[in-house]
Amino acid sequence: MSRRFALWLLPIALLAPALARAQGASETAVEAAFLAKFGAYVTWPGGGGPIVICAVGRDVLGDALDRATAGQQIDGRGLVVRKLDSVDRNSGCTIAYIAGSPRQSVSAALAALRSAPVLTVTDSRWSSARGMIHFQIANDRVRFHIDDKAAAESGLGISSKLLALALSVRPRSGR
Amino acid sequence: MIERSQRVPQFAAALMAVFLLLLGVIVVTQADRVYRSEQAQRADIRAQVLAASVTAAVDFSDLEAAREAIAPFRVDPATRVIAIYDQSGRLLTGYGLHGEKLSPRLPGTAVPSTMSRGVAPVVSGGKRIGTIYLLTDIEPLSRRLSRYALISVLAVMAALIVLILGVAQAALRRANAELQDTNAELIQQMAQREKAENELRQVQKMESIGQLTGGIAHDFNNMLAIVIGSLDIAERRFASNPERARTAIAHALEGANRAASLTKRLLAFARRSPLQPQPIDPNQMVSNMSELLRRTLGEGISIQTVLAGGLWRTHADPGQLENAILNLCVNARDAMEGNGRLTIETLNAHLDDDYAARHIGVAAGQYSAIVISDNGPGMPADVIERAFEPFFTTKSVGKGTGLGLAQVYGFVRQSGGHVRIYSEVGQGTAVKIYLPRYFGPAEVAAAAEAPAELPRGRPGELILVVEDEDQVRRMSVDALQELGYDVLEAPGGEDALALVQTRPDIRLLFTDVVMPDINGRQLADKARTLRPELPVLYTTGYTRNAVVHNGVVDSDVFFIPKPFTVEQLARKMRAVLDA
Ligand SMILES: Nc1ncnc2c1ncn2[C@@H]1O[C@H](COP(=O)(O)OP(=O)(O)OP(=O)(O)O)[C@@H](O)[C@H]1O
Ligand SMILES: [Mg+2]
Hints:
The structure holds two protein chains of two kinds.
Chain A: H1 2-25, H2 27-38, E1 42-43, E2 51-57, H3 64-69, E3 73-74, E4 77-84, E5 95-100, H4 106-112, E6 119-123, E7 133-138, E8 141-147, H5 148-153, E9 157-158, H6 160-163, E10 168-170
Parallel strand pairs in A: 2-4, 2-5, 5-6, 6-7, 8-10
Antiparallel strand pairs in A: 1-9, 3-4, 7-8
Chain B: H1 2-59, H2 63-70, E1 79-86, E2 91-96, E3 115-124, E4 127-137, H3 141-147, H4 149-237, H5 242-269, E5 278-280, H6 282-297, E6 301-306, E7 314-316, H7 318-336, E8 340-351, H8 353-358, E9 365-374, H9 381-386, H10 404-414, E10 418-424, E11 428-436, E12 462-466, H11 470-482, E13 486-490, H12 493-502, E14 506-512, H13 520-530, E15 536-540, E16 548-549, E17 552-553, E18 558-561, H14 566-577
Parallel strand pairs in B: 6-8, 12-13, 12-14, 14-15, 15-18
Antiparallel strand pairs in B: 1-2, 1-4, 3-4, 5-7, 8-9, 9-11, 10-11, 16-17
Helix pairs in contact in B: 1-2, 1-4, 4-5, 5-10, 6-7, 7-10, 12-13
The complex binds adenosine-5'-triphosphate and magnesium ion (MG).
């Protein structure tokens, strides 16, 4: 019994270094990769056109976001990265990763985008104010909370597949 | 030949059996293939379901979530491997169950026969980001085959049945062929036997024909000897001793008469006698005959008559019946050698269906019977059997002709009756004549007493005699002239008709029936268109012709059978002319 147990543990053991490397490299890189993937699990009203990912405020991602999105497409839509000091509902963002800046705090940015069809993403490392998706490191892994209620108010739909991975979900009203 | 034809069904049956077995195998393998492809399809569908549910987990490298998502499939005991590989085919996570190992790289398409494989891509945002790989147990071959056991058993049984039937059929054919052979043999034997019987019958027939012709020749010869001898004497003594010549002629006449009566009896047996049936009271006939019998049988024979009261009348030719009774009485006398007791009895008899069924040619019904019995020596069975045959006699040559009982038989049969001999050696003989009961009106039996004088022609009674044979015509003409009639003669129909036209004083047409140009009946019909009231008297030796139907003379026709005596002719002429 113990031998067979050992046998199926073996592949996990082999995988472990790879996972450790991914996590250890940089949480920032992981977050950038996630940002590049969220588009596949979210639906926007209107839709169409490239997915514009805005890094708002301090430049915490560096070129990680550019690398993660380079040459990628989601269901035929191209990915475009923009870096902005501040944001409002006319900035043309599809996804806004808000790190905050002296000019516009995270909360201010979130308020500016309230009920606009923009997926707002925040990070527990930079603020306690939460966007629709709020990154948090748990057990050395990048995880996230989801505010489905806010998403619904902005007319966004978040796939249940994504909801299933969240640490917590604030359900949309009526759910 | 038979051997080969027997093998055909056996061969066919074997072929059929093989075919059935093959069919069974095909059905089973086909069913198995369908089952396997269904299983593979199911595995694919499961893989697809899994792929959909682990998309996000794979995409976001959340292996924990991925493991959780695929965990429920472990519950299925048939599952051997569930694994998720990344887009480059490296193992991400999974389970190997029941001792199955997880391959670190995505395995190829080769699968063990006891398992089926399901593969589905994990797709996110239109991009393949991984692969679900899954192996599930399918039923082992033995289990699968046992599911087809019913089909297999049915196929094997069908094959067996066909084989057995084939063998049975062959056996049946063989038996049939044997049966046919024996049957053919039997038919051949029957044919042979029938042929032998026919030959025997032919021989017997030839024997009796020989007897018949021999008998006729013998008797005729005797009679001709008398006639020729007597006429020879008459010719030579004609001038010198007229008295002697006259007796010689009388002898000749007697011989000729006997010859005539012989042919008459022959005709009677052949049932060709022209009968003139009339209502008869058999009691009266027997009574009328008693004097004749007493004289014929002699003093040694005592005659007893037992006549039934209320006896039914019958319908028959009285002359022939008289003849029959006489023949039977003479036979009795001969048997008793002149001494003994003869009984003539009459009675009503009802022959029932049972009796009719047991005796060929007898119709059930009411009969009046005449039984003539004697206390003579009786007849052995073989004599009874042949007694009715013409010319069968136990008497010495010249004494018996063997035609007596033949006449009785012929007459009775022709009259619709039935005759039987009852006899036992040492006890005596009884011969029973059954004649059908007559229901018609009574008629006065005319031929009772004959006047002694010959009735003669009256002056001016002109008779036309038509006859193609000169000698016979000559004789008729002579006889009529002797009886005092005026006579015209014609050798055929045409001359006769010419005479009928030119001589309205002809009182009677006396014509032969059978003539070469037109027959007597046609002649009479034509003559009657000229002279409707002209009476016609036919004569013939035959019976099967226009005048006599089935041996019975038409009632409106006058008829005198050939040969006839002057006396018979005289009476008939008067009867017709005075009618
Ligand atoms: N009453 C009888 N008793 C014993 N035998 C008889 C008697 N009647 C006939 N038979 C036998 O049957 C035979 C045939 O008889 P059938 O009258 O036909 O011929 P037949 O008497 O011999 O000759 P025919 O009658 O011409 O003189 C006789 O020869 C005789 O043997
Ligand atoms: Mg006789």
